[in-house]
Amino acid sequence: MTPRDVSGDDSRWSDLDRPPLNAAALRRGLVREGGLWSGIEVVTGTGSTNSDLVARAAAGKAAEGAVLVAEEQTAGRGRLDRQWTAPARSGLFFSVLLTPTDVPVARWGWLPLLTGVAVATGLSRSAGVDTALKWPNDLLVTVGGQERKAGGILAERAGDHGVVVGVGINVTLREDELPVPTAGSLALAGAVSTDRDPLLRGVLRALEEWYDRWRAAAGDPTVSGLQETYAAGCATLGRRVRAELPGDRSLVGEAVAVDGDGRLVIATEEGVQEPVGAGDIVHLRPA
């Protein structure tokens, strides 16, 4: 699907509770000399901002710090190619291009977790919502005393030198608009603000802060403080979980740590600690 630029969209005022993002104001607030963000583009609709930005990077048409935001995604993807859809202007759906060439590739796996920390930090500051991270890349909020997923992160390689990180956050989604009962939104979690402009600015500023800190430490998760901060905000740790692993294998146990490679360490009932680098994690009720 071809992206549609916001400037030519006559329907952008169709839902006054969900005004469009102000691209010019976002650029003024975020793009600066010596900063990470090199450009911000807002389009009214596209299939997937991740796919679009990966293609641009491959064609040499995007520099590090490029940010692509869509008011609506029709083919947004989560982990395991799950679809992510939401009404127009009901959330923040964006992708960023990062080229951490001064960080060993072996440490690039921390980028989705770093983004999760930044999103949680930015939303805490700008929306006043307590958020938690479900390993590896889900954002949880509390609605009516229950944990619900309000966002997700997807990182994809972009050529040999880049990574595109996509973020989707439900902002004003109402109960009757939820795709599944376990979904949530910032509004349902009692956010003090659902104005998407300051929310996006807050998230991108926090992402720049953490990315700069991580790069300055050559990607070392301990020196940068990333490993400790992620663990402190991770709702998965200390829980009984089931990991659905590649090859139709599953693993049940207690999530006890996130190791230096960003893997979730699960202690099984047999007394074995097994690190999981990829898989679907289900939070289980206490036995």
Automatic annotation (TrEMBL):
Record's GO cellular component terms: cytoplasm
EC number(s) from the headed UniProt entry: 6.3.4.15
Domain of life: Bacteria
Keywords associated with the record: Biotin, Ligase
Coiled coil: none
BPL/LPL catalytic domain boundaries: 30-215
Extent of the signal sequence: none
Keyword field contains Ligase: yes
UniProt-recorded Gene Ontology molecular function terms: biotin--[biotin carboxyl-carrier protein] ligase activity
Stored CDD domains: BPL
Name the UniProt record assigns to this protein: biotin--[biotin carboxyl-carrier protein] ligase
Protein's organism: Streptomyces griseorubiginosus
Lineage per the UniProt record: Bacteria, Bacillati, Actinomycetota, Actinomycetes, Kitasatosporales
